[in-house]
Amino acid sequence: MDILETSAYDRRQRRNTWCVLLLYLLPFIASCTLYFYLWIPDSAPSLLAAGIKAAPILSLVLLVLSYNGGWSLVGVAGGLLLSAGGDCCLIWPELFIHGMGCFALAHLLYSVTFLSSRYSSTSSSFSFIFLYLVLWVFGVGIYVYLMPFLQLDPEADVLVPAIGGYVLLIVIMATMAARTRRPLILLGSLVFMASDLTIALTKFNVVDTEYKRHIIMVTYYLAQLMIALGDVKAVLEENADDLHKWKRS
């Protein structure tokens, strides 16, 4: 009977936790809705446009902080905050390198977080080693493919090494995400790569589509949401495990 009561209690706790989490997500949903409703043109950069674009990510920063505390500023919350800074920079085309630098630092923080004990993983199976290999081959292949287009840019001397460094960091981040074996974290990293790939292909005139901004922003917000939720879920599971150990002691 005690086991049944404990199981029922755990189910109620999980249900209540996800209900509260959904309430915490309302600011993210509202700010995303506002961004897509206003759809301020890229040709009209302003502080207002920067704020509206960064608002969904800032709401995720508050979400992660509320669950994980101030230490997450050197983890996923910090990565999200840097991403919001990158969003603001990319409003102005001349700040592209600065924005890319913000996102590179965000990937670095994500990578370090995914190596922490909270995300500790067992030894990699063959399927995951194969996934790591695919990620690295894909990253190198994309960089090599982009190289001729980057060299046509007036700022090629800066862009060629900068893009190379960025590709390196995002592939490391995706590799560390795969290591966690957490579906939300892994999918978030892969969708993030898809978003950045779309930026690269359209910015450097490899391909062009009238829906490029839609693709970039939908995949970007979705990726950050999955990474934030994955981090919160890891903390909730860690706390639940600690509680179970305490009950058994």
UniProtKB/TrEMBL annotation:
InterPro entries per UniProt: TMEM86B-like
Single GO cellular component term: membrane
Membrane topology value: Multi-pass membrane protein
Catalytic reaction list: a 1-O-(1Z-alkenyl)-sn-glycero-3-phosphoethanolamine + H2O = a 2,3-saturated aldehyde + sn-glycero-3-phosphoethanolamine; a 1-O-(1Z-alkenyl)-sn-glycero-3-phosphocholine + H2O = a 2,3-saturated aldehyde + sn-glycerol 3-phosphocholine
Keywords (A to Z) from UniProt: Membrane, Transmembrane, Transmembrane helix
Segments crossing the lipid bilayer: 21-40, 60-83, 95-114, 126-146, 158-178, 184-206
Subcellular location: Membrane
Statement: the UniProt record of this protein carries the keyword Membrane: yes
Primary localization: membrane
EC number: 3.3.2.2
GO MF: alkenylglycerophosphocholine hydrolase activity
UniProt xrefs under PANTHER family: GH04784P, TRANSMEMBRANE PROTEIN 86B
Record-stated family: Belongs to the TMEM86 family.
Protein name: lysoplasmalogenase
Organism placement in taxonomy: Eukaryota, Metazoa, Chordata, Craniata, Vertebrata
